[in-house]
Amino acid sequence: MAYIDPHIHMVSRTTDDYQAMAEAGCVAITEPAFWAGFDRSSPGGFYDYFRQLTEVEPKRAARYGIAHHCWLCINPKEAEDPVFAREVIGLIPEFLDKPNVLGIGEIGLNKNSRNELTILEEQIELAKRHDRLILVHTPHLEDKLKGTRLTMDALANAGIDPGRVLIDHVEEHTVAEVLDRGYWAGMTLYPDSKCTPQRAVDIIECYGNERLWINSAGDWGPSDPLSVPKCHVEMRRRGHTQQLIEKISLENPLAFLSQSGRFALGN
Amino acid sequence: MAKQTCPLTSQQVVDLYFMEHRAKLLDIAAFLDRLERAGGGEGLQDIRVRALYKAIPLLTDAASLGQADRVKRVQELLSDQTTEPTPAAHTQSALGADPNGDY
After folding, report:
1. A237 touches chain B (CB under 8 A)
2. Residue A169, domain CATH
3. Alpha-carbon gap, residue A179 to A171, rounded angstroms
4. CA-based nearest residue to A39, from A81, A11, A10
């Protein structure tokens, strides 16, 4: 079946992965700007990265019939130095009108520090000023609960419509608050952290299928670019309907992302 | 009892998932044994190991029976429960348990 992987870092993946994803039914992806596994030494490193996201990856994906879209930002792991972060933020408007840019993301918090929060607030304002969607990264492991709450408070303080924000990497202890406050929620399927396909299906069973999606967040670490179709197998194994699978992996991402006015499915 | 939200019967859940989770249980047991067989005692006092020892009883304690909320309770136990931003980020990585937690 056709599906969307709404969060995957293809700059870290091989062309063989594009091939395998296309064969599994992937028709569109969105790629948030993220930490490369090391801190970049200058804003120029981000400039080149934004070119890669807006010029190179769309062409690589198109060869496999996959529509490529992206989100731009400075990620929270490189946001502890506000002077550096502001230089990177200053580069973003030049790229915002590129046709595959959906909005600002993945912004958020990592260690829930004051400087990270300041830069998060400034990027929320950037999205607001340009009327763009927001994709939120929530922190890892022990920092997730607190960081998710601080992020939702910052969005609310800025007067952002929660229906235009996707809060990603939700787990059992954060998903209810995210949905209750009106945000969209993303579940990331990782082998060792975040959600396994089994736990993601548990969450769908417990919290419903509205404003919820799954993604692989495939990157340079332990991750699987085919985890979304593997989660579909888990849903079928439990007797869930094809209609539910399509709701989670096609209709929901399509509904959220189409608010950008720039999202399209591939072949 | 928790409301039924999984389409399978409980017997089907056992039949489908028991072997996989038996193996995971043995992995945890083997990890704790390996810790005791390893050199030095520091690892046994590591905050992550103490957190694990505190989390394991949540799987079987009376408060979880019929509630289907074990994952949430474990996640909350392993989380930083404070509400104010930290003054500064001194590391980029996470431990898996709250470094200031009461474990």
Report:
1. yes
2. 3.20.20.140
3. 12
4. A81
Closest CA to A9 of A64, A75, A63: A75
Closest approach of B85 to chain A, Cα-based (Å): 5
Phi-psi region of A33 (alpha: psi -120 to 50; beta: other; left: phi over 0): beta
Q: Does A15 touch chain B (CB under 8 A)?
A: no
In a domain, B92, yes or no: no
| Residue B14 counted as domain residue | yes
Considering chain B, what is the average pLDDT of its residues? 96
Q: What is the mean pLDDT of each run of 10 residues along chain A (267 residues)?
A: 97 98 98 96 98 98 98 97 98 98 98 98 98 98 97 98 98 98 97 92 98 96 96 98 98 98 87
Examine residue B90 and state whether it is found in any structural domain, yes or no. Answer: no
- Rounded CA-CA distance A161/A26 in Å is 29
**CB distance from A251 to chain B under 8 Å?**
no
Amino acid at A43: P
The predicted pLDDT at position A193 comes to 87
User: Would you give the distance in Å from CA A213 to the centre of its chain?
Assistant: 10
Closest residue by Cα to residue A6 from A238, A258, A176, A261: A258
In a domain, B101, yes or no: no
- Looking at this protein, which amino acid is placed at residue A191? P
Q: Given strand A165-167, what is the order of strands in its sheet? A: A3-5, A26-32, A67-72, A101-108, A133-137, A165-167, A184-188, A212-215
Mean pLDDT of chain A: 97
Residue A184: phi, psi to the nearest 5? -80, 155
Which member of B78, B85, B87 has the closest CB to residue A150?
A: B85
Sign of the Cα torsion A147, A138, A37, A126 reads negative
Identify whether A265 is part of a domain: no
Chain B interface disruption, residue of A39, A142, A198, most B CBs within 10 A: A142
B68 and B53 in one domain? yes
For chain B, how many structural domains are there in total? 2
ipTM reported for the complex, 2 dp? 0.95
Cis before A106 (ω within 30): yes
A245: CB partners within 8 A, 6+ apart: A1, A232, A235, A236
